[in-house]
Amino acid sequence: MNHPSPAIVAQSAVRALPRWALLLLCLAYAVPGFVGRAPWRNDDMTSLGYMLELTQGHTSWLHPLLAGMPGDSDGLLHYWLGAWAIQALGGWLPLDLAARVPFIALLLLTLSATWYGVYYLARSPGAQPVAFAFGGEAKPTDYARAMADGGLLALIACLGLAQLAHETTGYLTQLASTALLFFAGAAMPWRLAWASIAALGGLLGLVVSGAPTLAVLLGLGSAWLLWRSDGAQPGSSRKTAVALVLALTLLAALLAWWLDLWRWRVVNAHDPQEWPSLLRLLVWFSWPAWPLALWTLWRWRRLITSRQWHRHLWLPLWFAVVTIGTTLSTRPADRALLLSLPALAALAAFALPTLRRSIAALIDWFTLLFFSASAITIWVIWLSVQTGVPAKPAANVARLAPGFVPEFSALEFALALLGTLAWGALVAWRTARNRPAIWKSLVLPAGGATLGWLLLMTLWLPMLNYDRSLAPQVAGVRAIITSPQGCVGAYGLTRAQVAALMYHGQLAMVDLPRLAQCNWLVADPDESPSIVTMLPPRQWVEVGSVSRPTNRHDRMLVLQRLDTPR
């Protein structure tokens, strides 16, 4: 039995979003956060440390070490990409910016793959809108293009995408690989050659990024849906497409076995104390895609429960179920949830043809109020820090970030001002009448998310760098170490701290077993009692303790060998 489509779309509603506007939006979202930002502590700083070690030939490319410490994940691809970029561009760009260049490309690739994935899913027979009795329904190509615009806007609007997609970590390589594989599953019936290349890149990318199980699950699910999905296979044989996906999945599994990347990473996520925090994460991280995705499942439920396995619903649903399931069983949860966003954005796009006017208006008003208030807050605090008026925000910043010295950048101010003016023009366009475009309900969420990220990465960037970078703390350590020649030992420090001492302090850090040749040691204060018993008696003395300016409890102890020349 053929169930009718719930999508009723006229040709007038599927006009394409202007390409220049879409490209400008993607660039305004992707570039800020990569350019001009200092390496932030934890994963971002850690990755840069391993990239520099690879570039300098200090460690193996298959088993990279940082001061004797292996990586905290099994992913290798992000280290390789950053190291290759440093080797190619390090002579023209700062090393941290050079390392970020391939990651800018990865984020743009994620956005492009999501757009094309939704486009080809919208071309599926079961995704087509209802045909009108006297014509005038949306043409398939125009309908697919408008739906793809909506899917891309839904992805950019997701609140959790901003920070994690702008870090040089393996989670961004996993995200781009997942989006590539999603595109391959959607486009395989239409573009067999390009889809096969994308599937190969996505599967191998997931494996080398440390997610072989996810690659196998998504690959097998895509093959199954290709075999059982509705409609003919335009331009390709169904059996050929399925065989290709299965062969590539097997190749990915063999590569994971060869690289010894199969690991049991499942953790207990059933602690009742963790469920509220996980639920809050799911709610805000994928907003506004998740409520629209649920609306899609409700409105298209008859096609989901039919026996035809409509690919435009089941493919993103499978990707969402697998990645969200990974979120519930692995850590860190927010990094794992990042991989679900392309699929949730695709499901959100298919809510647009069935969205009621009252729901669309609610989305618009909530988005308008939320992002406008956020933008005003960012501007007011920036003005207070720069001018002292109003006084209270500046006093709060001085209390939370002691020692921070405000700085003014004409370029960053101009970009923030242009972004704010563009937001005002977008609001004026959206609130005007006679705007029947199907993607209009997601314009304000995507534009607001882009505006918020742009303002944070321009007006607030000096404050964020001061808080999230380890450079100020390393500068204090470097001031204590008066004779930095030779090696400096590390004990109890995190990988990010070691990487920061190497990059910002230009110190040759080594682990404790190689301490015999060093005259200096940097240690975690919480580990200092135990290190005293490990060091030769009466040979080392504590000469200083340096706190991070915005967190006095985050300290580094500096110890010196007594016979160190001054």
Structural domain tally: 3
Describe the strand arrangement of the main beta sheet, using strand numbers. Answer: 4-3-5-7-6
How far the N terminus sits from the C terminus, by CA atoms, comes to 87 Å
Helical content (DSSP H or I, runs of 4+): 55-70%
The parts where pLDDT drops under 50 for at least 5 residues are none
- Biggest sheet: strands, sense, closure? 5 strands, mixed
Gross geometry: globular
Mean pLDDT: 89
Structural class: alpha/beta
Q: What is the percentage of strand-forming residues?
A: 5-15%
Secondary structure: number of strands: 7
* Gyration radius from CA atoms, angstroms: 26 Å
Number of helices: 24
Entry summary:
The chain starts with 18 loop residues before the first helix and ends in a 5-residue tail after the last strand. Strand 6 and strand 7 form a beta hairpin.
How would you describe this protein?
With 566 residues, this protein is of the alpha/beta class. The protein has 3 domains: 11-30 and 73-263 and 274-354, no CATH class; 357-468, no CATH class; 471-561, 3-Layer(aba) Sandwich (D-Maltodextrin-Binding Protein, domain 2), CATH 3.40.190. 58% of the residues lie in helices and 6% in strands. The protein has 24 helices and 7 strands. The protein has helices spanning 19-30, 43-55, 77-89, 95-122, 140-157, 161-164, 170-187, 192-208, 212-228, 238-258, 275-285, 289-299, 301-304, 311-329, 333-337, 341-349, 357-387, 391-400, 410-431, 443-456, 461-468, 471-480, 495-503, 528-534, and strands spanning 65-66, 69-70, 487-491, 508-510, 520-523, 540-548, 551-561. The strands form 2 sheets. It has a 5-stranded mixed beta sheet, with helices on one face. Strand 6 (540-548) and strand 7 form a beta hairpin. The longest helix has 31 residues, at 357-387. The N and C termini lie far apart (87 Å). The model has no long low-confidence stretch (mean pLDDT 89).
